[in-house]
Design goal:
seven-stranded parallel β-sheet, 32 helices, Alpha-Beta Plaits, eight-stranded mixed β-sheet, 35 strands, alpha/beta, extended
Length: about 1050
């Protein structure tokens, strides 16, 4: 192909005049730039046939061409058009240049594949010659109407002269199906450049970017190898998604702040497919730093709305720029997964046999422990230990004695959290007992507490697992990622604050000393004054704070300040008083001894007035300080004679000498100080503070008061540093599986015990992370409930690829795999908790029979009165089926399905429940997000804000681990059975999801749906039969 034949893209042909054109070559491309002269431009040749390092050359042109080039450059700057300039002819002092106009020029980093239908198979080589241009240096094609909407199939045409190759475009894959001639001029045209452009027969297309990984996944040769391939497939899929999305220019944005977070509305021009709703976006700056702007909530013709629940980033968003898919979090996830996998495969994990355990369940060579599950110490420290049932005790026994792994299945309401707490506490006892034994053998050995990691696949499960630490324990240190949602940080801060409040309450209870409390209050007040002094910008107010603070220090009689320091402080106070005589500064407290010495009458005439009285006062003050002043008995005898008015002339002279000596010692001359000298005042305050902090403990001579003061000081320090104290000293770390690995730490963290809650929901790649860090691994979960998480785009790609086989191998969680393997061992490393405390006995029986082979049972210790429903709500029965036939209203199809009649009926019943039981909690579950939105809309005007806090509406994925008094399940599906159309119930017929939906309720489970349509689903049909055949619990909604 020759670009000169691309008439559809040709724009103006013009001439450029320059001094010499001899160095230019025909077919070279030109970069044209402004100069200060509107008719003068800078041109630089480039392209594959430019062999030298080209330098800019100045040229001139006519006014018309100048205006055209000016408009071209402005259009490029505004991102409305792209221009390409090619030298067609060369003269002695001028160039003839052809301009080509394109809507975009896009350069791909990966190959473009053009698949060709069977009827065009013999023309593949012809198409490669005809439609691929190699003149740019890299293969290029010219495309008409490429991707009218991102990630949306588009009818396009690849252009060559007057020929058009018609195709469909999805991402970087083109499917060509027909060639025709162009009859009219077509605009706009896109210029696509890639490292490789290949035409292939559609039936032979290998989708080579993914096929190797898919083959590895479906081969089943190795479990770890299969998930390693899945990881690679995930990374490649992410790269392709980011490349397909590219970037979107936004011209402006607005932001709305609410209690939940920040909503951004970006003004855009490009259309985006709704399939991107739910994806995260970011803005990439010039230094490649990405700023997240949240999750896409809504897409409209000229705007895009995102939601961000963190305030850490949005102030960095520029007024205009480019939006891209935010891949930062996904890349970090991939890096952590890779690091954990390498630790496992290279034998660096604490459990060296972990590969053989994961692959075939092989046991370690270590011996099992022989510790009792429940000790007397555990009963003292963990009050619930005495109430554990047999299976819970067996779970603790297994966890503390297994040499490496234990897998604990915990069906709904069986007390998994209680078991986890019991395991951690008992493990700590055993560990510390072993440490003390080592210390007995070696007195210099330092006893350590175990390092424990409690983790789960999501934050809510982590918070639940570490809630309410045992009495006297530090709470777990919670590792939280920088981009975590604010409610996660708030939950951790709330739990820390609750613990801190408990510590404070206990300390205050043991330090009920009014003198100590008064001192601490005054110290707090002085600290606040010092901050005011340092932060005050007004010099006069700053002096006032300094004088008040010095007065406070001098008010403590039990503190021995240096005499010079006292003088300086008093001088500052006095000068501030003189400067601000109208201001209310408390007068300084004068030293009583100095005051008494100054009052003495030292000549016999004045002594006759009030000399005896002043001498007596001096004698009393000196007597109080007798030990500190080092006075002799003769001195006091002399004062006694003076006070008794029976003194001789020599006695009076000796008295005068004694007073003068004491004055020299304790009444030194005033110190001169400049109150405008900031450093002098700072030095005085710091010296006073130092003396006070060194001696204030002496204000309380008794040990009880000093103990109270020390505890109060500890509390003050703890309140300032409690987060760092917990991080440094807590034996337990809590984090999601991903966040448990710190990419920035120097060494790899190793834990003595790792407990993974909700382990069946963790993707094996994420589960490998904590498993690579623990000397003992305890997996707690339930493979009968929600399955592990797989990347939706990857799943879609695998299901659509005909080469992929055995998807069920990916659906099985690592938890289930290990549970199955360990259960078959001579000494099983598994246990199932089988007594539940959550559900009404009828709900428990139904869930047990449908999902747990009848093993789940009601706890004998459960109080059945707690599970009774109100008699006027579906007759007070625990199970109800509300049949809403198709005649009442069908389902509404779409990207997500909904059914209005069910939403209406459910909203009416919610009102009824809250009227009968005002404090009831209600969970409304559906399998379709559109139905969730519809139910929320129906409820919005029927219940008040307080009642809304008692009701949660959502898809089933959000409900595992939660419980409600009443659960209402909206099934949605309703269609006519007399049509030829086949209706798939696959999305609804998922036992794991139904198990979660049926097991959330404490008092009553009500299923809403079209019984005729839902009968093919075994468990829903079973519930229908239980309700209908017993003549109770079945209702026909009319």
């Amino acid at each position: 192909m020759d670009i000169s034949n691309l008439g559809a893209a040709k724009s103006l042909k013009f001439k450029l005049t320059l001094d010499s054109a001899s160095e230019f070559k025909k077919g070279s491309f030109l970069k044209i730039e402004f100069t200060n002269d509107v008719t003068k431009f800078s041109i630089t040749p480039f392209g594959p046939n430019v062999s030298f390092l080209a330098c800019p050359v100045f040229c001139r042109t006519d006014a018309f061409t100048s205006q055209y080039l000016l408009e071209c450059i402005q259009s490029e700057q505004a991102n409305t058009q792209r221009f390409f300039f090619v030298i067609e002819r060369i003269y002695e002092d001028s160039l003839e240049v052809q301009a080509y106009s394109f809507s975009t020029i896009t350069k791909y980093s990966t190959a473009i594949e053009i698949q060709v239908n069977e009827d065009l198979a013999d023309r593949i080589q012809e198409f490669e010659r005809k439609y691929v241009w190699n003149g740019y240096g890299e293969p290029s094609i010219f495309v008409l109407n490429n991707k009218t909407s991102k990630k949306q199939s588009a009818q396009i045409a690849i252009v060559s002269g007057r020929s058009l190759l018609l195709a469909k475009n999805i991402g970087q894959t083109f499917v060509a199906y027909k060639e025709r001639f162009r009859k009219e001029r077509i605009l706009p045209i896109e210029f696509l450049i890639a490292p490789e452009i290949r035409f292939v027969l559609r039936s032979e297309s290998t989708n080579n970017k993914f096929i190797d990984d898919m083959n590895r996944i479906s081969s089943g040769t190795s479990y770890i190898n299969r998930w390693e391939a899945y990881s690679e497939l995930t990374k490649k899929s992410l790269e392709l998604d980011c490349e397909e999305f590219g970037s979107i220019n936004y011209e402006s944005y607005s932001v709305n702040n609410s209690m939940e977070g920040y909503t951004f509305d970006f003004k855009i021009q490009e259309q985006i497919d709704n399939s991107y709703i739910g994806r995260e976006l970011c803005i990439v700056s010039d230094n490649n730093r990405s700023t997240p702007v949240g999750t896409i909530r809504r897409i409209q013709e000229d705007s895009l709305t995102t939601f961000l629940d963190s305030s850490d980033f949005w102030e960095e968003i520029p007024s205009k720029g480019e939006l891209s898919l935010d891949s930062y979090g996904d890349k970090v996830i991939a890096i952590r997964r890779e690091k954990a996998k390498q630790r496992i495969l290279s034998g660096q994990a604490p459990i060296k046999a972990i590969v053989s355990i994961v692959e075939n369940g092989a046991s370690s060579y270590y011996e099992w422990g022989t510790h009792r599950a429940i000790s007397s110490k555990l009963r003292r420290n963990f009050k619930k230990a005495s109430d554990l049932n047999e299976r819970q005790k067996k779970a603790i026994d297994l966890a503390i004695n297994t040499p490496d792994f234990a897998v604990i299945q915990g069906p709904p309401g069986t007390g998994k959290t209680t078991v986890i707490k019991g395991i951690c506490e008992r493990f700590r006892e055993i560990f510390e007992d072993e440490e003390r034994k080592k210390q007995k053998l070696n007195p210099e050995y330092i006893v350590h507490s175990p390092k424990i990691l409690i983790t789960s696949f999501q934050n809510e499960a982590v918070d639940n697992a570490i809630s309410a630490p045992l009495q006297g324990d530090l709470p777990a240190y919670r590792k939280i990622s920088r981009r975590a949602k604010e409610n996660v940080r708030n939950q951790y801060e709330k739990s820390l604050q609750s613990w801190l409040d408990g510590v404070r309450s206990n300390i205050l209870e043991s330090t009920k000393n009014t003198s100590v409390q008064s001192l601490n209050q005054k110290r707090q007040m002085m600290a606040e004054k010092f901050l005011k002094y340092k932060n005050e910008k007004n010099p006069e107010k700053s002096l006032m704070f300094a004088a008040e603070l010095l007065n406070d220090y001098l008010s403590f009689n039990g503190i021995n300040y240096d005499e010079i320091l006292i003088k300086k402080a008093k001088a500052i106070i006095k000068k501030v008083e003189e400067k601000f005589s109208n201001s209310a500064i408390n007068p300084p407290v004068e030293d009583p001894l100095e005051k008494k010495l100054k009052a003495q009458r030292l000549d016999i005439t004045s002594f006759k007035d009030d000399g005896v009285l002043n001498a007596k006062r001096l004698r009393e003050t000196l007597n109080l300080r007798r030990d500190k002043l080092n006075l002799q008995t003769a001195d006091f005898n002399l004062l006694d004679s003076i006070c008794n008015d029976s003194f001789s002339d020599s006695d009076f002279q000796n008295y005068v000498a004694l007073v003068n000596n004491l004055k020299k010692k304790y009444c030194k001359e005033p110190v001169s100080i400049d109150i405008n000298d900031q450093k002098a005042i700072d030095d005085c305050l710091l010296s006073m503070s130092y003396c006070f902090n060194e001696q204030y403990m002496n204000l309380f001579p008794d040990n009880e008061s000093r103990k109270a003061l020390i505890l109060a000081e500890f509390m003050d320090r703890l309140e300032q540093e409690y987060e760092s104290v917990v991080e440094k000293y807590s034996m337990t770390t809590a984090a999601t599986c991903q966040n448990s690995l710190n990419l920035h730490s120097i060494g790899d963290k190793i834990y003595d015990l790792v407990v993974v809650d909700e382990a069946a929901r963790a993707n094996p790649l994420d589960l490998f992370i904590p498993m690579s860090m623990g000397k003992k691994i305890i997996l707690v979960g339930d493979h009968k409930q929600l399955p592990h998480m797989l990347e939706p785009d990857v799943v879609k790609r695998m299901k659509e690829d005909p080469n992929f086989k055995d998807f069920s191998a990916l659906e099985q969680s690592l938890f289930e795999r290990l549970y199955d393997m360990f259960s078959k061992e001579p000494k099983p490393r598994t246990v199932m908790l089988n007594e539940q405390f959550r559900m009404h006995p009828d709900i428990c029986k139904f869930v047990s029979e449908q999902f747990y082979e009848g093993e789940l049972k009601m706890s004998p210790s459960a109080n059945l009165d707690l599970y009774k429903s109100h008699p006027e709500i579906n007759g007070g029965r625990a199970l109800a089926f509300i049949d809403i036939p198709n005649s009442e209203g069908p389902e509404k199809p779409g990207r997500s399905m909904s059914r209005n009649i069910e939403a209406t009926k459910i909203s009416e019943d919610v009102v009824k429940i809250l009227n009968k039981v005002p404090n009831a909690t209600i969970g409304i579950i559906s399998f379709y997000s559109a139905q969730v939105s519809l139910i929320n809309d129906c409820l919005s005007n029927k219940i008040n804000n307080e009642q809304k806090s008692q009701v949660e509406v959502g898809t089933v994925d959000a409900f595992q681990g939660k419980e409600y008094d009443y659960v209402l399940l909206s099934c949605v599906r309703s269609f006519k059975h007399n049509t030829q159309k086949k209706h798939s119930l696959e999305f609804l017929d998922k036992p794991n999801r139904l198990c979660v939906s049926f097991s959330r309720s404490k008092k009553q489970l009500a299923v809403y749906g079209d019984a005729q349509c839902l009968k093919p689903i075994e468990s829903i049909n079973a519930l229908y039969r239980v309700c209908a055949e017993n003549n109770g619990g079945y209702y026909h909604a009319l």
